[in-house]
Amino acid sequence: MSRQADNPPSDLEAELRRLREENDMLRSLVRDAPVAFVALDLDRHVKIWNHAAERIFGWREEEVVGKPLPHIPHSNAESSREIHQQVAAGKSLRDIELERLTKGGKAVRVNLSTSPLRDFSNNVIGLVGVYDDLSDVAVPEIPFRGLVEQSLAGLYIIQDELFQYVNPRFAEMFGFTQQEMASQPVENFIAPQDRQTVSQNLQKRISGELTSIYYHFKGLHKDGRLVDIDVHGTRFQYRGRPAIIGVGLDVTEARQREQEIERSQEQLRELSRHLLSVREEQRTKIAREIHDVLGGTLTALKMDLSWLQKHAAEPKLASRVSTMKELIREAIDTARRISADLRPGVLDNLGLLDAIEWETGRFRERMGIECNINIGDAPIRIADDAAIAIFRIFQEALTNIARHAEASKVDIDAGCVDGTLLISVRDNGKGFNKEAAGDLKSYGLIGMAERARQLGAVLEVTSEPGYGTQVLLCCPIADGGEQA
After folding, report:
1. What is the dihedral of CA 104, 107, 112, 118, to 10 degrees?
2. What value, to the nearest 5°, has the Cα angle with vertex 430 and ends 399 and 436?
3. CA distance 402 to 444
4. Tens digits of residue pLDDT in 115-143
5. Residue among 118, 133, 122, 147 nearest 36 (CA)
6. What residues contact residue 5 under an 8 Å CB cut-off, 6+ apart?
7. Where would I find the beta strands (DSSP E) of 186-335?
8. Contact 124, 117 (CB under 8 A)
9. Cα(271)–Cα(59) distance, rounded to whole angstroms?
């Protein structure tokens, strides 16, 4: 079986693949565009020289890439440097009519629009220029149409807010033919709620405010349904005037899958909430049965044995009764401990902060680890289900220390600050690598995070090998002290 069948691509891999495909399409579109695209680095050396630039000026790509621009007349050298300096400083220039030279020495009139080329940090790393041959405005349509008619991506040209050209794939996205969309207003194919956004984005590029933009809109299909369309369009000169050339992708199925995944995740969250609630109800019920029924029965037996011990004349019988009383006492202690683990009475009777202090004392006694606790003085009123969830998170934090940390000291802080309940559990143990732990099935951490998410709280776990671990819970508390 192939690797692809065994390991379906993740959402990230699918997104990267989609971006690479789109990048390849845009690269192909630039290479075969009807206008000349020329990109330079900051040293004015050619980085991109597309097919239209070869046709207009005569030099092949391999003859110019990595070298200074070859088509600048000597008389225009100074003005060319000034243009380069302005654009390198961050300025965009539009519709400049210039004279340039062909490889054969012939002068040609061109229209130049040029903008800074920036990296992901918005630093200028060069500039890109778009040349339109003013001597023959009809030439661009000839190679363009033949190159993109069979493209699997939707391609279009918009000018005066009309579709001047769409390829078969773009028309198919909307259920129309090329002829039905040709020269039609763009808004006719846009859902009413998105028409203003699309129009504004078109105007931003036509005006030169933006060179290119990537965005999403709802399109109107011929059969009346809505389709999800992602577009990436760039300003360029078409027939001597500003226009938009771009790529469109039908992402309707992808969006539907995303929505299905979101619905499924929400259903899983609802199931998780229900399971946690049912578990707490069962814990409470079992704790009550152990405390009231089993505890009561054991106490009654202990009292009966005490009576029997007082009235037993036989020394051996009295000794055996004493042993039985000790066993019953241990059973009562065990029942109380199990009951407290299932549902601590102090949580119901005294509140969350007292329950945290009580649980810390139990942890210190059981593990022999130094525990420093700082509890705020202000009382906190919080809903029962929220208090239970927070207490369980705190319990799990202590359990993780006992199981994994090898710590000798734990610092605990709890209190309300500016309307937020903060609980911090910090140990001086061996710590762990969070990235490595993320690859493992850390169900304790997952359970803590899920409880916090259901509360609308934020759970931060910070750790580093050799430097201990801190668990910090930040839970919003509404005015009046009730949990938000």
Report:
1. 40
2. 85
3. 13
4. 888 877 788 888 988 887 776 544 344 34
5. 133
6. none
7. 212-220, 226-238, 241-250
8. yes
9. 66
